Amino acid sequence: MLLNITSAEALWFLPFVLPICIWVAWTDLSLMRIRNKAVVALACIFLVVGLIALPFPEYPWRLATMVVALLIGIVMNAAGLMGAGDAKFIAAAAPFIDPGDPVMLCLIFAANLLACFTAHRIAKHTALRNLAPNWESWSRGRKFPMGFSLGSTLAIYLFLGVIYGV
Q1: 42-70 pLDDT tens trace
Q2: Where is the Prepilin type IV endopeptidase peptidase domain (predicted)?
Q3: What pLDDT digit, counting tens, does each position of 71-88 carry?
Q4: Which of 79, 120, 127, 130 has its CA 20 to 30 A from that of 70?
């Protein structure tokens, strides 16, 4: 498996993005919310670190993906297909993805979504639930905290980029 993101790019982004991804997963599991502060922090990380990590001609195109992803997310949220926090997180995460990697990202996301959903449902219906008894995601019926899989997908992508990037 070879990703188009360079190892250097991924290495620049990962240490800054990883804590935000963990925060997003945690708050969505515990509160069923992705905080605006996390989304803004993620976007700010790209605005600053992207200037260092990316060749300058690529930087504005990556920023454009944030805008496009946000517009698509707004439409999908209005149609009831995703939560507003999910849409905003996807938009803030979009510029971290190399333009040549959407197929690999979708494969990573699909496998990770299945793993996160399975782990959440197993924990929800077993004694593991007692480790975090007050999490909102346990009592939301069929709803699933997508920030858990969205945050971990971005982290996994960047981690794999460090190892398998060009």
Answers
A1: 999 999 999 999 999 999 999 999 999 99
A2: 17-116
A3: 999 999 999 999 999 999
A4: 120
Which long-range contacts link 51-60 to residues 24+ away (Cβ below 8 Å)? Answer: 52/12, 53/8, 53/9, 53/12, 53/13, 54/9
Angle formed by the axes of helices 84-93 and 146-164, to 10°?
A: 10
Cα-flanking dihedrals φ and ψ of residue 101, to 5°?
-110, 10
Q: What does the domain layout of the chain look like in residue ranges?
A: 7-164
1 pLDDT higher than 80:
no
Cα end-to-end span (Å), the chain = 11
